């Protein structure tokens, strides 16, 4: 059996942000229509290593698949496997670090287009790593962003990030020395960090702000504080089931009696209009994303199409 293999360089060559946004949005719409099924992440802990496993079925694509990745002290390694739904045959094996970066950013871009006030021209960003790059790129792709304020603890890294992203995206990107400057009076605030504790005070948020918290998918981590959850008129999750399973951002608010999972909305239902998103220009909205395998299966399916069209990738005989 011949299986398509795509390495990181192949993914980099084939995938761009507009394509990723299109594919991921369709995946959420198909979830709402019952044409896809997502299984939350599970983790196996070994000495010095964690194996992270997630899977999904995409009836609308005729594919099922998984993402597996390991994390060790030396970093993370990501792979996605795709199977033909009718035959069960393995179709593709994809190195998926770049793909994961792009699909995570795309979800935030779609959320910003759907949930932020439409005249949002500025964004605050916490984090200056690789994932923060795709977060900013995606929001600039979907919203009329002209200026971004970025804060991270390392001054050199945030300055380098600002310079790089300003050149790449053609907007003004300002590195700020105080976290408050990446929050106050801004219509969109994104957290894309590895922090275990909240990175800003929710009292700093202005009326109408959309907060997109994407950095944490562990129960013991929280990028946002109880005040942010309490002040949010609406809480939207990429998946309520997945967030219940691994989003530590809500622990404090649940313990304080300020939040219950029954009040959260799933993004796919909001996206197709089955439930209400933004109700008023002054609403503070919290969007929490932990990542879903259906995004990987959908983007992986498009990568296979593009690779076949363009003759990219190699063949594994299995």
What does this structure look like?
The protein is an alpha/beta fold and 318 residues long. It has two domains: 2-100 and 294-317, ornithine cyclodeaminase, domain 1 (2-Layer Sandwich); 109-291, 3-Layer(aba) Sandwich (Rossmann fold). It contains ten helices and 15 strands. It has helices spanning 8-14, 17-32, 97-115, 130-142, 155-169, 226-231, 240-246, 251-255, 267-271, 293-310, and strands at residues 2-6, 36-46, 49-58, 63-72, 75-84, 90-95, 122-126, 147-151, 172-175, 188-191, 210-213, 234-237, 265-266, 285-288, 314-317. The chain has an eight-stranded parallel beta sheet with strand order 9-8-7-10-11-14-12-13. Strands 2-3-4-5-6-1-15 form a seven-stranded mixed beta sheet. Helix 4 links the parallel strand 7 and strand 8. The relative contact order is 0.19. The mean pLDDT is 96.
């Amino acid at each position: 059996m011949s299986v398509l293999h795509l390495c990181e360089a192949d993914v980099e060559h084939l995938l761009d942000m507009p394509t990723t946004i299109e594919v991921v949005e369709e995946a959420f719409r198909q979830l709402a229509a019952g044409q896809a099924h997502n299984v939350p992440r599970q983790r196996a802990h070994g000495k010095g290593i964690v194996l992270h496993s997630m899977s999904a079925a995409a009836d609308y694509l005729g594919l099922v698949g998984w993402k597996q990745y390991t994390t060790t002290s030396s970093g993370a390694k990501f792979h996605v496997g795709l199977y033909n739904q009718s035959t069960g045959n393995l179709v593709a094996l994809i190195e998926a670090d770049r793909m994961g970066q792009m699909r995570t950013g795309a979800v935030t871009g779609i959320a910003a287009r759907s949930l932020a006030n439409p005249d949002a021209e500025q964004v605050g960003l916490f984090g200056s790593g690789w994932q923060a790059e795709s977060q900013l790129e995606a929001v600039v792709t979907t919203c009329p962003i002209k200026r971004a304020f970025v804060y991270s603890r390392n001054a050199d890294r945030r300055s380098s990030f600002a310079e790089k992203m300003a050149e790449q995206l053609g907007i003004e990107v300002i590195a700020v020395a105080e976290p408050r400057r990446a929050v106050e009076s801004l219509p969109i605030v994104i957290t894309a960090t590895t922090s275990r504790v909240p990175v800003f005070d929710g009292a700093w948020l202005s009326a109408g702000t959309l907060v997109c918290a994407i950095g944490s998918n562990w129960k013991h981590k929280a990028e946002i504080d109880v005040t942010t959850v309490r002040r949010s008129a609406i809480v939207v999750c990429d998946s309520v089931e997945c967030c219940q399973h691994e989003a530590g951002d809500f622990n404090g608010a649940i313990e304080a009696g300020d939040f219950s999972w029954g009040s959260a909305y799933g993004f796919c239902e909001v996206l197709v209009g089955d439930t209400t998103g933004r109700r008023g220009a002054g609403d503070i909205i919290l969007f929490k994303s932990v990542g879903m395998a259906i995004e990987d299966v959908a983007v992986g399916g498009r990568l296979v199409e593009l690779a076949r069209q363009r003759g990219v990738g190699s063949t594994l005989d299995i």
